[in-house]
Amino acid sequence: MSGDDASGRDGAYNPETEGAEMRFSERMSYGDYLGLDRILTAQAPLSGAPDELLFIIQHQTSELWMKLMLHELNGARDAIGQDHMPQAMKLLARVSRIMEQLNSAWDVLRTMTPSDYTQFRDALGMSSGFQSLQYRLIEYALGNRNPAMVKPHAHDAGAVALLNAELSRQSLYQVVLDFARRQGLSVPPEITATPSAAPHGEVPEIMALWQTVYRDPSAHWALYEVGEKLVDLEDYFRRWRFNHVTTVERVIGFKRGTGGTGGVSYLKRMLEVELFPELWHVRTAL
Known about the structure:
Layout: H1 30-34, H2 36-39, H3 52-81, H4 85-109, H5 114-118, H6 133-142, H7 157-167, H8 172-182, H9 189-192, H10 204-215, H11 221-252, H12 264-270, H13 277-285
Helix pairs in contact: 3-4, 3-6, 3-8, 4-11, 6-7, 10-13, 11-12
């Protein structure tokens, strides 16, 4: 039909007839806005192995999700510190959904077999996810703090500065416990007085605090809600660690990691870490 405005003379769809912009020599395009020229040329396989591109993209996209995760975690801490709990709940919910995306990425990587990986493993040298700056910042933000883990970044002054800045800030859990104090609940001063320098261990007074909250949620709704958001977040984080260790075991067995760690044995130790122990153990006490 010649009267079809959305079609060219040959009947093919022409978006320009509906007002779609088709010329971008002087306008910002989709690719310009997203910086796709930089993103899509940031993959530089070092071997001829076909699966090396999968390995690179899986880790690069994970780092992008972690960048967003850090952004939202920092926003959530700021919001809780200002008693803006609805905003904080939204941000923490988003962090859990980001963790869901990170978990799904392992499903793609698990399509790589041991034979596939051995074709390019030597090209990795000593590089390893163990050295991920953003992952370390996430762990520090969530309270799993070990100052010794700054050492793998000693060659990068900017990275060391970021890690030390995070260590000088209250962890997410400390910010939540400060909020609990402002809500009239008892929190030992030393728990939040200075930024934590080690993983949080169970404290009887904090266990009693969460028992109070969970035995009467309606009287402490904001704390009850943030407690469940923290459990949700750690649930996804535990799944991420489990998916990591099973993927590594599936691909390399019990070989040492490229970064020198024990590989699977190191990752299995990480499965034992509890970020918010009282929130998990309070379920037994109720």
